[in-house]
Design goal:
homodimer; 5-stranded parallel beta sheet; 5 strands; globular
Chain lengths: ~200, ~200
């Protein structure tokens, strides 16, 4: 039985939804927004600020570093947020039985044998349709929104882990939610989590 | 129901064995050695030569090109072998209900909606143990054997497909056979193949 499931996902692939279904089916805690709230509580930053920075830094890292005047033990704001987030993820993992979405959790928990790492992706056309359906239309073309968000996730992951986001070496399983379907992806993950 | 399953695999990951189990469970034809024999029949080259070149060219492509003196419609030997192999894979896919291991089959059949593409990998330590067990010891260190073989597969795949071997975009599912186990990998693939 895997006590912790990390889900990394391309924007618009439905990885968050799959994580929620898995958590419900296994009776596990689900950390996505909850994680943001914990970081907010700990740091005093607003949840919306953390949502924006927690996975999408450090594109403006140098800026925030100078702007904040090294007020966090000599760390830039992004690095400080990452360190708090990292500590919270390690604590949550100690409690066990949880699904954690994004936030480099696969890397942060890489030394735990009771963790299963999942990557969810889908082709761009399907993801573009999904984000318009789920998040609504925007003046920015959906393909551009996908590229921007994935690029930020990729850069953020590389910066904090020195690994390549989406690289198969980092995951027990990678699934194309576009061809397989969200429900079926969740079923497979649950099966694997339950296996000895 | 997916009528064709392609399996790409890191050397030593047990991808071939998984493919065989899947083929047996689904009652599908299994093409690995069989494919080599068909190419041999068609070209007159020896099966052992094709085994070596079919996935591990074109490291010596320029050499074989000049050496063979453009005897294959102006193609180098490697390109000629690839073109024969490609044609055979397209023909086999037409017949349907089969598992094809390696040989860029995922790329060659990319336009068929009835194809499921699988990538099998495992960490180097587990693969090193496995190749010594399956193929026997060798004066060359197992880690070196893995690197050499995977490098050749990567270069061959890139040359003929212009895509990156192992890149998640190319597969419906990627599985770590080291953490999941060969039998369980095969079960998941069969489940997905059977799904509507």
């Amino acid at each position: 039985m895997k006590k912790i499931i990390t889900i990394s996902r391309e924007f618009g692939s439905g990885g968050r939804t799959i994580g929620k279904i898995v958590a419900d089916q296994l009776g596990y805690a689900f950390y996505d927004k909850e994680l943001i709230e914990k970081v907010a509580e700990k740091t005093g930053f607003s949840p919306s600020y953390i949502k924006e920075r927690g996975e999408y830094s450090p594109s403006a890292s140098a800026f925030s570093y100078s702007f904040m005047g090294r007020s966090h033990d000599g760390l830039s704001t992004d690095d400080y947020l990452f360190s708090v987030q990292r500590k919270i993820i390690l604590d949550l993992a100690e409690k066990g039985d949880c699904v954690i979405v994004g936030r480099c959790a696969d890397y942060i928990l890489r030394d735990r044998a009771d963790t299963m790492n999942v990557f969810i992706h889908a082709d761009k056309k399907k993801r573009a349709e999904r984000i318009v359906k789920v998040y609504g239309a925007s003046p920015v073309k959906p393909e551009k929104r996908l590229d921007d968000k994935d690029k930020k996730r990729r850069v953020n992951y590389k910066y904090y882990t020195d690994r390549d986001w989406g690289d198969y070496h980092n995951y027990d399983i990678s699934l194309d939610s576009g061809t397989i379907g969200l429900e079926r992806c969740a079923d497979i993950i649950c099966q694997l989590a339950r296996a000895e």
